[in-house]
Amino acid sequence: MRARENPFAVQRLDALAYRLRGESWQSLLARLAGLRRRAAIVGPEGHGKTTLLEELARRLARDGLRLRWLRLRRGEGRAARHALRELTRGVDGDDLLLVDGAQELGPLAWRRLRWRSRAAGGLLVTSHRPGLLPTLIECRTSVELLAELLRELDPAATVPLPSAAELLDRHGGNVRAALLAAYDIASEVT
Fold first, then answer.
1. N or C: less crowded end of the chain, CB within 10 Å?
2. Are residues 97 and 174 in the same domain?
3. Given this model, what pLDDT does residue 174 score?
4. Rounded to 5 degrees, what are φ and ψ at 78?
5. pLDDT band, very low/low/confident/very high, at 80 (cuts 50, 70, 90)
6. Over 70: is that where the pLDDT of 79 sits?
7. 152-170 average pLDDT score
8. Distance between CA 23 and CA 56 in Å, rounded?
9. Which residues of 24-47 are buried (b: 16+ CB within 10 A; e: fewer)?
10. DSSP string of 29-49, one letter each residue
11. Does residue 127 form part of some domain?
12. Which domain holds residue 8?
């Protein structure tokens, strides 16, 4: 199958919306407001933290907040010093600081970020572990969630895939890795 025909192409995966379960967006945003917009989205890799952060950012931007992003990937924590300085330069109450991958920051960098973000209208981070800020939500995956995403991406089930349970198990609960594996399987279909 050609890349542009693959139902699991990256641009299609990126267009998937976060599925909020057991809570409304209004109640989640109200809890975030109660935490003075200083909170963490917590969960293992591939469990939807970044997707949720992006959706929350869109909703908070509608309230007039200016978004300031810092995206850290594995091993980038030490290189983030300059980026952290830029992120926090001249912040005020209209700025919402968003740090994706905050677990990459060392203790000193984390303390600097917290100190420099005091004037900001909020600090919302993703992390693999709790404890950096109060936990807003812990992201979890499920077989049902993966099955729903697979159906949305390939409604006619044109690609013969293992079951959602098997895909999720193979990838340790990481939905992103399971969807990328579905892409690889689809690319081999002739």
1. C
2. no
3. 96
4. -65, -30
5. confident
6. no
7. 95
8. 14
9. eeeebbeebeebebbbbbbbebbb
10. HHHHHHTTTEEEEE--TTSSH
11. yes
12. 3-16+141-187
In a domain, 73, yes or no: yes
Q: For all residues of the chain together, what is the average pLDDT?
A: 93
pLDDT tens, residue by residue, 93-130: 999 999 999 999 989 999 999 999 999 999 999 999 99
What's the pLDDT score for residue 74?
81
As a whole number of angstroms, the distance between CA 153 and CA 146 comes to 11
Strand order in the sheet with 135-138: 66-71, 95-100, 122-127, 38-42, 135-138
49 within 8 A of 41, measured Cβ to Cβ: yes
Report the greatest alpha carbon distance in the chain: 56
Bridge partners of 39? 124
Q: How many helices (H) and strands (E) does the chain have?
A: 8, 5
113 near 28, Cβ under 8 Å?
no
Are 109 and 76 in contact, with CB atoms under 8 Å apart?
no
Separation CA 159–CA 82 (nearest Å): 45
Query: What pLDDT shows up at residue 142?
Result: 96
In this prediction, residue 61 carries a pLDDT of 94
| Closest C-alpha to 117, from 50, 44, 105, 49 | 105
Q: Which helix (H) or strand (E) holds 26?
A: helix 25-34
Q: Looking at this protein, which amino acid is placed at residue 10?
A: V
Token output for 32: 């975030």
Rounded percentage of the chain residues whose pLDDT exceeds 90: 84
Residues 132 and 39 both lie in one domain:
yes
